[in-house]
C4-dicarboxylate anaerobic carrier (Clostridium paraputrificum), 507 residues
Amino acid sequence: MKRKKKFLFPTAYTVILVVMLIVLLLTYLIPSGKYSTLSYIMEGGKFVVENPFGEQIELEGTQETLDELGIKINIGMFKYGSITKPVAIPGSYKGLEKENKSITNGIVSFFKAPVEGLYDSIDIITFVLVIGGIVGVVNKSGAFTAGINSLSKILEGKEKWLIVLITILIGIGGTTFGLAEEIIAFYPIVIPVFLAAGYDALVAIAAVYLGSAMGSMASTVNPFATVIASNTAGINFTDGIFVRIALLVLGLLTCTIYVIRYSEKVKKDPSKSLIHSQKEEIDKQYFISSKEEAPKFTLGRKAMLIIFVLSFGIMIYGVKELGWWFEEMTALFLGVTFIMYLFAGLKEKEFVNEFVIGASDLLGVALIIGLARGVTIIMEKGMISDTILFYLSKGISGMSGVVFSTVIFFIYIILGFFIASSSGLAVLSIPIMAPLADIVGVNRDIIVSAYEFGQGLMGFITPTGLILASLAMVNITYDKWLKFILPLMIMIGVLAIVVLGFGVIVG
């Protein structure tokens, strides 16, 4: 009798390609359509309206123009640069004929999208490769192994506080300035530390990713989500802040307890790990060996780790205070690589080889990022996002306040899958959704909170976000993450509905 072959869940690459294929099919099934959009031209102080057919007209850059278009945003938001992206005009949706939707064109689009995604994501891809290179050099020098050995002695019996600290600190970064893509850089530091503490790599991924995801979901003053959405809704970004703070505190507490419970279970019995079969492979990948084999923690190795950690502090400061993005962050770590050469104790050829090997180790992560962007490109070209928003927004004006907030929350969960960009979803949807709050009789800040909560919750699992790139750091398959995260998602989702309902009642 033949034994049945055990089903192996596909890799992240296959998952994204399947999602890409599904989205491509949806572009055939869902009607195309667009809202007219309004942009502000600083030079001349004019508005430009572009209709769904691509035709443009200029209008006076005044408050009266906004009022006539039904856009309840203060003109100052445009004049002072608070809103820079085109804003959707309520009631302007038009269905469009699908162009070139033959099977041949669909096949061409499917194969072109990943390539276009790679081109479109070159900034973050370069960042990831440089991070991989510097990690390869630090690993080869023995600094990581020596440092982990020393840290494991200090943390003995207190490892769970590391989970608390990392989750909360990254959560604060997420809620204040939108710490998201930058977390890719943290994994090479955090994963070996958690492995040395007796946990599995899933704990490390969860502590970092959930901190960022929960912080972004309950953004308080995040300029890329809260501020843009509030400006677009025509309210102050502090309106409804206590609702978001409530979810932030409760959500981070729930995430931390959830991860600690799992981590302690794994520490007591490693076979309970969802990725137990990969333990040997992951330990080898991150140079986790017995304490007796650990190299000495010399002054040079200490200097390398101090420089490495300080570079992350500089990166966070640059992003938050100086407006850095991937070009500046990549340049920072490339510069740090040159400094590392002075302390690595490696010959020039060996140093360069290890940098290249380290970069190649993260090439798979970089490719996943590009593929995920390809999904978004197919969606944008298919012009189905506006159509989905149009139909979802219909028929909810007669609902009561609490039911309304709950339905809006679920609508944004759906929209969050199709539109991963927080600022992009805000300027597209908030002008359409905010007037519905007026009809139902709830404050507009409820719309802003529902938008953040819904898109943020979807961010825990959406393949077009950062989760597949995060899992690829240690080759964890998507099904393992789903098994780990779904119970927590249900808890956070219930919390979000309750907090939103409370906001409606007290508002």
